[in-house]
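Question: does this match?
>
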Amino acid sequence: MWTACEAAGTAVGPYVYSAVLAAGGFVATTGGRTVAQPDSALLALLVGVTAVPAVLMAAAVAAQRRFTLDRDAREPAHSPAV
């Protein structure tokens, strides 16, 4: 389960981060020129490296807490035949 969550996070993470940057109005640079970023882009950068990973990690932990490898916990108890 951990491997699946980690792989999904690695695959989806960059797209989520770029969406946060785009929503914040981040301006990409071309040709090595310096571009002044609006305050909203700086906030998006901060949120993208702090809150977004925290939320995604919390979701992964929540998903993993529901999964167990203990067979006894997954299968209902069978009552012995009388």
Remarks:
- Residues 2-27+35-68 form one domain.
- The chain has a mean pLDDT of 84.
- The radius of gyration is 21 Å.
- The CA atoms of residues 68 and 74 lie 7 Å apart.
